[in-house]
Design goal:
single chain; mainly alpha; signal
Length: 168
């Protein structure tokens, strides 16, 4: 009888864990993610738990970060939890920055979540637009880089040479 009770308890725990993961699904809209995040927060789920469940279900990091921050969660805590759940740190930092956080401050939060500081691109640190987290300088859309000059050669022009002043 004790064995049956244990099996029932384990099955109930397994099903409840599966239900939490199954609530998130790939392709969810932002409003669907918002509803699931709100429900999870009301259940007192941790940011780590929410992020892990969303990652397992294939929810996009940008949508999850946006939802968590818009529901009053501290941006640094969101970045730390989502990076710890396995989301790409550069993508998470960009999403937090798009929701009002300072990218430069979010880098230390990502590192606290386990991100390798050497993988955080300069473009992410600068809050780049569409650099894609590749860290390639000089391409289109890179923030804070100067374009290469498209001209060469001397300048010139029409000045006077010493000793040839006219008009006196």
């Amino acid at each position: 009888m004790k064995t049956v009770t244990r099996i029932a308890a384990v099955a109930g725990f397994t099903l409840s864990s599966f239900a939490a993961v199954a609530a998130f699904a790939p392709g969810m809209s932002l409003s669907q993610i918002d509803n699931e995040v709100m429900t999870s927060l009301k259940r007192n789920d941790t940011l780590s738990s929410i992020s892990g469940n969303a990652k397992t279900a294939g929810v996009a990091s940008g949508l999850l970060v946006s939802s968590l921050i818009s529901q009053g969660q501290v941006a640094c805590d969101v970045v730390t939890a989502t990076v710890a759940a396995g989301y790409d740190a550069n993508d998470v930092i960009k999403a937090a920055a798009a929701n009002g956080a300072k990218a430069s401050e979010m880098i230390s939060c990502a590192i606290a979540g386990g991100a390798d500081p050497t993988t955080l691109t300069e473009a992410t640190a600068a809050g780049a637009g569409d650099a894609g987290g590749q860290g390639i300088a000089g391409g289109p859309g890179n923030f804070g880089t100067s374009p290469s000059p498209t001209f060469s050669g001397g300048g010139g022009g029409g000045g006077t040479t010493p000793g040839s002043v006219s008009g006196s």
